[in-house]
Amino acid sequence: MDRYYRYLQLVKEWPSTAVVLGLGAVYAIYYFAKVVRKPLVTCQNAGLLRFATKHMPILSKPFWPTIWCFEGRLQTVVRALIKTEIAVKYRGERILTSDGGEILLDWIDNDELSNIPRESRPTVIILPGLTGSSSASYALHFADNVKQLGYRCVVFNNRGFGGAQLRTPRTFCAANTEDLHHVVSHIKKLYPDAPLLGVGASIGGIILFNYLAKYGSEAQMVAAMTISVAYDMFESTKNLETPINLLLFNYTLTRGLNQAVRENVSMFEDHFDTLHIMKSRTIKQFDQRMTVKMFGYRDVEHYYSDACLIEKMHKIKVPTLCLSASDDPFSPHRAIPIEEAIKEGENILLVVTPYGGHLGFLEGLLPYDKGYDDRLMSEYVDAVFKFGADELQ
Q1: Does 202 qualify as catalytic in the annotation?
Q2: Residue 181 is among the residues annotated as catalytic for this protein
Q3: What confidence score (pLDDT) does residue 19 get?
Q4: pLDDT tens across 82-108, in order?
Q5: For residue 22, what pLDDT is reported?
Q6: Which helix (H) or strand (E) holds 104?
Q7: What are the start-end ranges of the H helices in the chain?
Q8: N-to-C CA span, the chain
Q9: CB 221 within 8 A of CB 198
Q10: CA proximity to 390, closest of 90, 55, 33
Q11: Radius of gyration of the chain (CA)
């Protein structure tokens, strides 16, 4: 009772302080009761689920998103603003495609931390997101995760990004896997005895998923992981064109795409209406005006239909971990194929956190360093390379 009377006295003397404390208490109660939860983990394959449960303890524990920015849009924006860009030293390699295009591969050979011979050292290929490259903060952290585990890493920078010179009037799109196939073949030619695992973020994950679906058991990868992919391009577009998401994300990404065209306008102007393209205000407009024509689609609906992943679950022939957040502004919960993964995804391990946003997954009071996606990736990559050959056959 004494505490109750002291609180009443506080309310009388300092009403604003009491209100703040009260609201803070309500916020904390909501956070602990509704926000902190274990991820949804679903998998049709009992063996793959058993493997994940055994070697990835993170899946059995709650995800504690940063308490002051747990909402999806905040997670997405805050990560872009404050995530540390750690120092990573790459070795660059430029390779040419059959049509004369240039791709820059950024390697971490990891001779200093790895005790595994170079010729058989497990390798992770990282595919960044739209307008992203090896210098993006999430790519730097992913690369460092692989390095700390003692494995080799290579970041695949799409044409025209990461310092690669654009030599042809062609870039990349979510449905086209030719460049990835070329890069994978190049890596396997260099290191035929080294197991290869793919990790794709956002559109990089869509390209990776489409590659795995197209090549099946001939994909030359032992496993894969996607992070924050849009499984349904139509639902993703619809969600990104809602007012808040339009302002926060769609306009910004489209400006980045327009800038890439502007920087290479001499390469494009004889093939596309560059002035019209650079007036695009949304990703859909940009795709309609450029991507569709570049890759020979009838229209943007044809392109998006070809890029969608939901109907391709059954085509994946290697273990693939798919991490998504229910509040991802790029891929809302209704578009996450939970039922499809259960029914058709024999090799899909779907992990869905209630919060995390798009490539967010921030945790801790000051989320400058590693996040939930980093920890999950590290456990998965390490488990696959150490135990996958024996337990995932």
Answers
A1: yes
A2: no
A3: 67
A4: 988 888 999 999 999 999 999 999 999
A5: 80
A6: strand 102-108
A7: 2-13, 15-30, 46-55, 72-82, 137-149, 178-190, 203-215, 233-240, 243-245, 251-263, 265-268, 274-277, 283-286, 292-294, 300-307, 338-344, 372-383, 389-391
A8: 64
A9: yes
A10: 55
A11: 22
Q: Reply yes or no on whether the pLDDT at 44 is more than 60.
A: yes
Look up the pTM and report it.
Answer: 0.94
- Distance separating alpha carbons of residues 64 and 28, to the nearest angstrom: 13
Give residues with Cβ within 8 angstroms of 309, minimum separation 6. Answer: 206, 209, 210, 213, 229, 231, 232, 337
- Note the residue count of the chain: 393
| Catalytic-role residue among 202, 228, 280, 326 | 202
Tell me the two tokens of residue 390.
């024996």
Query: Buried b / exposed e across 51-61, counting CB within 10 Å, b at 16+?
Result: bbeebbebbee
| pLDDT score, position 15 | 67
What is the rounded CA–CA span in Å between residue 348 and residue 342? 8
Residue 135 catalytic? no
* Helix pair angle (137-149, 372-383), 10° resolution: 40
Measured between alpha carbons, how far is residue 365 from residues 67, 82, 184, 324, 333 in Å?
Answer: 7, 12, 39, 22, 26
Do residues 71 and 355 touch, judged by C-beta distance below 8 A?
yes
- C-alpha span between 81 and 223 (Å, rounded): 31
**Six-digit token string for 319:** 């273990």
Residue 18 confidence (pLDDT) above 70: no
| Helix then strand then coil, % of the chain, to nearest 5 | 50, 15, 35
d(CA 384, CA 291): 36
Catalytic-role residue among 358, 373, 374, 382: 358
Assign residue 356 a region (left: φ > 0; alpha: ψ between -120 and 50; beta: otherwise): left
Q: What whole-number distance in Å separates Cα of residue 356 and Cα of residue 193? A: 36
- Coil, strand or helix: which one is 243? helix
What Å distances lie between residue 276 and 160, 186, 262, 300, CA to CA? Answer: 20, 37, 12, 16
Q: Which of 272, 249, 214, 292 is nearest to 129 (CA)?
A: 249
Catalytic entry in 232, 327, 328, 382:
328
